[in-house]
Amino acid sequence: MLFRRKKKPPKVYTTPQGAIYPLYADMLKQSHLLIAGATGSGKSVLVNQLMHTALYRSPASVRFILIDCKRGVELRDYASLPHTLAFCKDKENAIQGLKYAIQIMNDRFDEMERAGVKEYQGSDIYVIIDEFADLMTTHKRIVTPLVQSLSQLARAAHIHLILCTQCPLRDIIPTYIKCNFDSRIALRTSTKQDSRNIIDIAGAETLPNPRTEHKAECLYKSGCEMLRYSLPTYSAEDRQRILEYWTNTKALA
C-alpha cells in the first residue's frame, strides 16, 4: 500500500535565536549615535545590525525614518517595512524627512505637556542618515539647524538620530553638532586626525581593514568610557530572512 507523504507546514521564520547582541542593544539605548569611518570600514554592516536588533527587541514599538543620500542604495531594502515612516532617497526628500521628524517631535511634546509628563510614553523613532556628508556639503545651511534641534531636544520625545559618514572632517561634523552626540562609533579611519574628529583621540586608524582582514572592529565611545569591540554580524541568509519576515508582517501591535 502506498502512503502519500504528508507535507510539512511552512516554516514561519522570525529572527534567529541569539540575535540580540549586547553591544547593539547598548548602542540603541543611547540618545543619539555618530558612526564614522573610511569607505569599506563596516558602516553599512553596523547599521543593518542595529536595525535588526531594534526589530527583534521591540517590533511593536520601533519606527524608522530613513534618509539615504546614495539614491536609496544602502537602505532601500527597509523602505517597504511597516515600521518605516518615511524613506528619503535624495537630498531634497532628505530635508523633508528631517522636517517630518521635527514635526513628530513637536507633536509629541504637545502630548507630553497635556499629559503632564517629562518623557514620551510610546514608540522609539530612529532617524538614520546615510551619507550625512552629502547633505552637509550641498545643504549645510538648511540641514544644520534641523539636526541641531533634533540632537538637542528629541531624546525626551524618544526620537534618536543615527548619523553615518565616511568623511569625518570637521566641516562635516562640526563641534556644535558633535557635542550633542555623547555616543560615537569610530570604525577604521584613514588617518589619526580622522579618528580624533570622531572620538577625540587617535586609534581608529589602527583598526583592521575588513576588506583584507575579513573582520570589522570599532572604538565605541559612550559617555566617558571608550571600548574596542569586534562587530558581531548576521549571516547573509539570516539577513534576508529577517527582511522578508518583517516586510510581510503588516500588524505592528
What characteristics describe this protein?
253 residues; 39% helix; Rossmann fold; single chain; disordered N terminus; alpha/beta
Care to describe what's here?
With 253 residues, the protein is of the alpha/beta class. It contains 8 helices and 8 strands, in the order H-E-H-E-E-H-E-H-E-H-E-H-H-E-E-H. A hairpin with a 2-residue loop joins strand 7 and strand 8 (225-230). The protein is globular, with a radius of gyration of 19 Å. Residues 1-18 have low confidence and may be disordered.
Q: What is the domain tally?
A: 1
Note the main sheet: 8 strands, mixed
CATH architecture: 3-Layer(aba) Sandwich
Can you tell me the residue ranges where pLDDT is under 50 for at least 5 consecutive residues?
1-18
Gyration radius from CA atoms, angstroms: 19 Å
CATH homology superfamily: P-loop containing nucleotide triphosphate hydrolases
Q: Which class do the helix and strand fractions yield?
A: alpha/beta
Report the strand count: 8
Nutshell version of this structure?
Helix content is 39%, strand content 18%. With 253 residues, it is an alpha/beta fold.
Topology, pairings included?
Elements: H1 22-29, E1 33-36, H2 43-57, E2 62-68, E3 84-88, H3 91-115, E4 124-130, H4 132-153, E5 159-165, H5 175-178, E6 183-186, H6 192-199, H7 210-213, E7 217-222, E8 225-230, H8 236-247
Parallel strand pairs: 1-5, 1-6, 2-3, 2-4, 4-5
Antiparallel strand pairs: 6-7, 7-8
Helix pairs in contact: 1-2, 3-4
